[in-house]
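Exercise 7. Given the components listed, write out the predicted structure of the assembled complex. Treat all entries as one system.
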Amino acid sequence: MKFIDEYRDSALARNIASAIRTEVHPDRDYRLMEFCGGHTHAIFRYGVQDLMPENLRFVHGPGCPVCVLPMARIDQAIAIASQHRVTLCTYGDLMRVPASERQSLLKAKAEGADIRMVYSTQDALAIARAAPDHQVVFFAIGFETTTPPTAVALKTARAEGLSNFSVFCNHVLTPPALRAILNDSGQDAARIDGILGPSHVSTIIGSAAYAFVAREHGLPLVIAGFEPLDVMQSALMLVRQINQGRRDLENQYSRAVSPAGNTKAQALMRETLAPRETFEWRGLGWLPDSALRVADTYADWDAEQRFPVEVTPSREIKGCECPKVLRGLLEPTDCKLFGTVCSPENPMGACMVSSEGACAAYWSYGRSRQSNRATTASAA
Amino acid sequence: MTAPNSIHPNSPGHSNRRLDVREGRVDLSHGGGGRAMAQLIEDIFRRHLDNDLLRQNNDQALFGPVRGRLVMSTDGHVISPMFFNGGNIGSLAVHGTINDVAMAGARPLYLAAGFILEEGLPLADLERIVIAMAEASKAAGVPIVTGDTKVVERGKADGCFITTTGVGEVPDGIVISGERATPGDAVLVSGSLGDHGIAILSQRDNLGFGTELQSDSAALHGLVADMIAAVPDIHCLRDPTRGGLAATLNELAAQSGVGMLIREAAIPLKPEVRAACELLGLDPLNIANEGKLIAICPAERAEALLTAMRAHPLGRESAIIGKVTKDPQQLIELETPFGGRRLLDWLTGEQLPRIC
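Answer.
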């Protein structure tokens, strides 16, 4: 496949791996946080960690929009669907995310709520057009990557006068999340030597949005694509920066990301959506200016205003270490629930639900490595 | 095609008026056991599926003893959309059950078919489905010898559900079972994976991406017969339908109490399947197939088996993809083209596209 196979070339991968092994200093550790779940997925799916030297570890970050969504928002979505008897359209990843009282969208659907899985905002609009007497709510979620399609849906709904369509907006912004992690100076703050920065997000907001990481926090950041060679090349770029004592913003994903990003998409987002004063992130708590709501000028298409429901605070499952996993403080296998009561079939925390979550990646792709390690350790 | 309480079309009072297959629709009377039902059976089912055993007109098919051991399998088919590139629910219902029987190394002999029809289903659609079943059954040499029809109210089914049951005979000396995989054995696949699942997905209303890809739906008993002739000591055979290669290998590993090491680069995949999976964020190794099989045999017989498979039209793209390992945890490990390793796990729930 053109433009895909080039980034999965095994000979090239071995060359980059060899270059990394040559360049790392044996007397120090390199802890590189990959921000995005897409990176986590690529690292596990292609066995990238196996090609790295022992003293280079990938630390998994909070970059999975499903994983950082607090339970309260799923509760709210279920309440909108069941109390107001609307059709709730959502992306597939969200269906199994645990909500309070052992609920989930999938269970609510089984109990009779009209919850449908869609592949795009256009599907949700089509459902609304087909049933003009019935209210349709689109459960919007994702980082800046998936925000422009929501903006387009709002514009389309207004242009067409679709009065039975609205958006339950849960779009979150990556720079504030990164700030929150880097500002964490507590005793248990994650030690990070460099960051693999968001790639698809950066195609929208541009690489310059992450300049603060180097400037304010003195850490190197490389905008890294999601293909395995992208991740490996970005790791090499970070190793070189660390060795040279540089703290720069670099862009490995230059084939898609410019410093300013997609200004047309940004304008669309500014027109239809507005910053929230604060928003709760699973694992990171309430972060100011970290999420978007439907703009006042589009209030008629805001599901939160059209279908008010009582919002109760999130109550996470006892013992679930998702918050620490999301901040790079713990590995999934450090959680007592991992692999015991928490598995993809029966997820206790959101990191086990999404295929981009660190726990799901460990379970689905890396379990054997963990058991091999355990075997080696017990043999030693 | 017989049904409990059906009225024989030649019985007194039967109307000679033909069923309006072109414009008509299934209604509740077609399942009511009366004249309409008899007419439906006569004009669609019996007309297209005709054979000696079906013509017995009883509520069962009576046939003579077979020589080998008997195998039996049954499978329900509920597929959306019902018509797709490379087949429809009818041909699929025939191929699926023939394959389940054949995976014991058996020669499939007879099929039974049960239909649940939704009120409102166009009779023309039903006829297309039955014609596809007739063609598939004739091409495979496995007749449909008995069956049943029920009609449910509109909204209580999705057009047409078909359950097919098959029986077959296993030649003496052939022992093929999921519990026989042994460390050291070779793992083979009969061709490119994911074709059926992606062909279906591409034709769902809300996806509709352009591809000419056809379902691989096919009856595999001819291929199996050639494989057994070349290598009688095949340990395991299974068709990787729902859950794809990943589920099938995990099933076999669990049954046999072994692990497997699979080389990802050796797994045949069509560029269209890879591209569609890339686009949707799906793993082709979890995607369903309807005309492929997985074989496990002693390593020293793997090349002979591969040669036999490649000599058959349905096995031209066969490949040796890995080996069975000793692993009490029964894990399937995948060696990536990079040289790293990862687990090839069971699919969790339904495979869902990722958000970004």
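Discussion: The CA atoms of residues 266 and 321 of chain B lie 5 Å apart. Chain B has two domains: 5-170, 186-343.
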